[in-house]
Amino acid sequence: MSKKVDDKPYFKMVKVDDEVFGLVFGHGVVRSVWTDGFYELEVEYDNHQVVPYTRDGFPGWSGKLDFQTVFYKEDIDLMSYDFTPIHRTLSVKEIIKLRDKKRLEVRCPSGIWQSLNKCAPYVVEEYLENNQLHLFRKQSKKGE
Predict the structure, then answer these.
(1) 44: which strand partners?
(2) Which of 4, 55, 57, 107 has the fewest Cβ atoms nearer than 10 Å?
(3) Can you tell me whether residue 134 is helix, strand or coil?
(4) Could you give the CA distance from residue 10 to residue 12 in angstroms, rounded to a whole number?
């Protein structure tokens, strides 16, 4: 995961041009910092995706997430995340079935495999619309 940071909020001392790593989009740079709104920083990722975040690192693309998805680059330990390649591409039918059972994982643009609800919904829709079925897999069971 990431280093435990006792100083809340996490991005208390954030500055423009700070390097960060997002669990969904990968490497990014802080482009804007605000002090007068719900979202207090804006990150531009290497793929030109721009996402606003709260001071605690919660993304603007989903109100359902209750965990931090962006960290200072030096604070995150990527060894604890799954980057393994897939061995078999799922069919559309399998993807729909696994999505309904909440057992579907998606490979985020960062390269990390995440459960479907932890990835930006528009990323998942883009993958499906572009028939990028190789970016989905059955969720692995603990211990596998």
Answers:
(1) 29, 50
(2) 4
(3) helix
(4) 6
